[in-house]
Amino acid sequence: MHRVPLIYICAAVAAICGCNSDSSRDRDAVAGAEEKQVNPPRVSVPGDDQIIAPDETGIARTVTPTGSIDTRSLFFQNIGINGRACVSCHVANQGWTITPDGVRKRFDRTKGLDPLFRTVDGSNSPLADVRTEDARRRSFSMLLRRGLIRIGIGIPAGAEFELAAVDDPYHFASAAELSLFRRPLPTASLSFLSTVMWDGRENLAGMTILQDLTHQSNSATQAHAQKVDPITDAQRADIVSFETGIFFSQELDFQAGILHEAGAGGGAVALSKTPFHIGINDTLGADPTGQPFNPVAMTMFDAWAGLNKGQEGRTRGAVARGQALFNSKPIQISDVRGLNDALGVPTLQGTCTTCKNTPGVGDHSVALPLDIGLTDPSRRTSDMPLYTLRNIATGELYQTTDPGKALITGKWKDRSRFKGPILRGLAARAPYFHNGFAASLSEVVDFYETRFAIGFTAQEKADLQTFLRSL
Predict the structure, then answer these.
(1) Going by C-beta distance under 8 Å and a sequence separation of 6 or more, which residues neighbour residue 399?
(2) For residue range 179-207, what is the model confidence (pLDDT) as tens digits?
(3) Of the candidates 297, 269, 273, which has an alpha carbon nearest to the alpha carbon of residue 283?
(4) pTM of structure
(5) Gap between the Cα atoms of 263 and 259, Å rounded
(6) CA-based nearest residue to 4, from 363, 292, 256
(7) CA-to-CA distance for 263 and 319, rounded, in angstroms?
């Protein structure tokens, strides 16, 4: 991890918080931040989740209505039967998800007995051998190496396809329950969501996003914490109130400095004040206000354009250049199921903001799950299952490591379609994409370069990564 002097972090945290760095409270916060760089805290204890959280490239921050994380919320309480709470898979100092490094530390500290390590979804198979520490290390390898949870979903009745073949290295998956390995989505900044869950399975007909999240709070508690009976309406409201009140973003970059200085609008406070409504700036014209799509969706670092003096100034200039690339670098978008086929165009000229159109946030403002090729058999690694689907009507065969939305709708057109997550706070939560395909932001940029032949120069790649790590 990048190491910086304590005195620099002290000044930075004081500036981030807008407070006097001489106070004992701030000194304690800074000391805690410095300590986390050397000895990351126990991630399973709610009280260890801090407002200020260092990561490899800087410091991220959580903003809440009260200015502190209220661990009295049911989000932090075990109300199931297996020792888990929401916080088991959604940790503040890991970007409100979990990271492989955090998972491994938890395993080593508890010998794989922490509530995170449960066969219901933490192991590679629900039938895995977990009798010894060595057996547990093998059985939870996807969680340990890539921070992936196993989601079990079967092919729905009346689906337009059937399972023709399965190659599961863990010898469990079948048409009754496919094993789908996915990253836990962050539980911060949820007021910007248009889709709940990677495959949209919690987007319920006729329901608002708030109602979807309320339903999801129970689904998650019954599935992941194995609670037998549904949680009450009051319990659901408590969890959702906590989740929708927290905003997470990078606040400090070790090279660019504080991300809301010198006219910039980075950081969690600015994020919490960002306007949003379903359909805002929609690429396909679904903004209910009638406003047309504007590809210049990211503007928080406009004030840093042209800066180039000193290390800090040069990095700030790179952030601004990366933002401009995100808004304006032409991309010939082709073979994206959910976009090209929906529009009836083989190629669409767009930019990053064609799919990441929510201003200042970076997800899509309406439900628009897409297949960008992440589950293609050519990208399969040996630790991932591979499924062969057969279209019942045409006999067409299709191979994928995860059928995505198709397992929810039963529609052939929805195979391997997933939502794009909120981009804010990226630096804290590698690996990336729903299946942890990219270990770093560099690999994320390389994937898009290869997939769409964008033509990034080496400098443009570096600038775009600098921008992404500042979100």
Answers:
(1) 376, 377, 386, 387, 388, 389
(2) 999 999 999 999 999 999 999 999 999 99
(3) 297
(4) 0.90
(5) 9
(6) 256
(7) 13
